[in-house]
Amino acid sequence: MFPTLSQLVYLTNFNMKKIITILILVIATSCSKVIIEENEPNTKKNNFEILWNDFDQHYSLFVIRDINWNDLYDRYQPQVNENQSDDELWTLFSNLLEHLDDSHTVMYDGNGNSYRSGYKLNKQSINEISKTLIEEKYIEEITTISSEDDLLYSKIKNKNIGYIYLGTMDGSNPAVMDNVVAKLEAYDAIILDIRQNTGGEDRYSARIAQSFSDGRHLVYTVQTRNGPNHNDFDSKTEYFTKFNNSNTYNKPVVVLTDRKTISAGEVFLLHMKAFNNVIQIGDTTAGDFSTLSNMRFLPNGWHYQYSIQKFLLPNGESLDGIGHIPDVYVKNTEADIKAGNDTVLDTAIQHLFNEFGIE
To answer: Where are the alpha helices (DSSP H) in 108-263?
Structure first.
């Protein structure tokens, strides 16, 4: 199906905003070297100093995550010596960055190897969900959306409940969610599954949430680090939900989450949880909201990225390092999945029956 005129206008604006965002990030991080000069000494100690100082000058979450970066320097800098192998230095850098517990902190060696800070629980959750199990046991009449990555809708078998799976916030036409909600409007509830959502574009998240909106709400503010002190940030930018005049779906919406619901997936949840008819069921989300820096480089060829912003709730609190805590906490185990049971989805279905009599 060809996009409508309004969709074309949205896509043009959406892509332009992506370009503007990239330019902002480049400007925001331009106060230190991005590309290492050829004459920069490629020694173990110099690589450590460049990495530590770059984080010290630009990383945004030291205060929020209660990290004493100077103490970590005193602990790790003496361990660096020129006789270390690259593998040993990689392990030392990884151990240093693990203290941040921030999966937006990523390091690459240029040879296909990478390290992501605080990723253990996120990675573990991959085995705690099975799309094949969901499709074979729980849902029927599956419809995929060809224009979007990892988006499908359906209904729960033998229940008057719609089902949507959304695995990323990086598609091309988020306005299509309006049509999906309209297709499911007759059902008494919708289960919106964002487990394993890999994030993407915050504006995409906001537009998806708009399809469920019950009004305009202040949901968060953003500040970008802009100075040498760990508390140096620019002024707050406020973000609001957008009211969808055509939305008539005011029945229960259950959002399913897990530890790998991350970044723009968590921003999406900031919008959704502002609506009165939305409940979160599942595991706590990753707790990684910030925008990434542009790529940074070391003399030895390694490169890395880190968080450069802080996202705050309207009351001034941060969910970075914490995540969205569900209204009903439940998580699958690998044993559940191997036994053919999605306990999270079962709990959501049972909750809709217990609280609303939906079956």
So the answer is: 120-124, 131-133, 176-183, 202-210
